[in-house]
Design a protein that fits this description.
Length: about 120
């Protein structure tokens, strides 16, 4: 699709979930790397995810880790299997449960905008 240097994701202030793939071994992964973590190939491709997925695991946070996060308590933290075949961690609606189909959007959390899952 495109070289990693040409694409920015939500951690860079562009609200998109990006993942990479290896043309040599076909592995997919989340979190930018200059090489494939499976085979070491140095030419991974970066792709924009659809934002769709399924809840793999969830937990409800009832105690804020920081004073800034206290306004958000209680909040859900989820592991999401994305439709493209990789897994991410995101915030989400408190009522979500394992197996729910979701779509991600970006919502404020403390001083950031973070991936946030809502039921489809």
């Amino acid at each position: 699709m495109t070289a990693a240097a040409e694409f920015k994701g939500w951690t860079d202030g562009v609200y998109a979930i990006l993942y990479q793939s290896c043309g040599a071994c076909r592995r997919l992964w989340y979190f930018h790397r200059p090489f494939c973590p499976s085979c070491g190939d140095t030419s991974p491709q970066t792709h924009r995810a659809s934002g769709r997925g399924m809840v793999y695991a969830c937990t409800l946070v009832r105690r804020a880790a920081t004073p800034e996060a206290k306004a958000h308590v209680p909040y859900a933290i989820l592991l999401i299997d994305m439709a493209e075949g990789f897994r991410i961690m995101a915030h989400g609606d408190v009522g979500l449960k394992i197996g729910d189909e979701i779509v991600t959007e970006f919502r404020p959390f403390t001083s950031l905008r973070v991936p946030y899952a809502v039921k489809t």
